[in-house]
Input
Amino acid sequence: MSETIGMIFIVIGIGFDFFGCIGLIRLPDLYLRLMATAKCVTLGTCSLMFGIFLINGFTAVGIKALLCAVFLLLTSPVSAHALSRAAHKSGVKLCDESVCDEYEKDKN
Output
């Protein structure tokens, strides 16, 4: 039973990673690409790691996978935010189709 649920989590993770890669190629500017990669890592890779944990259980491989998932859940959103804020401060422009710029509103 846990192997089946683990395989479901792995398939979901592969799907998120696949669509994150497509978003990385197709999205127009740096900020949207960072959003796609952050979602890809947070949801996709953590799903993969959790599926590996469910399949292997409390073995060395399973615990390492669970620790990697927790580490990614804590660091991926923070690093994406830091990168996007640094890019905005250094002057990287948004794409023309962007509706609003919240960081620019905060400067005033």
About this structure: The chain has a mean pLDDT of 89. The helical segments are 2-26, 30-56, 60-89, 102-107.
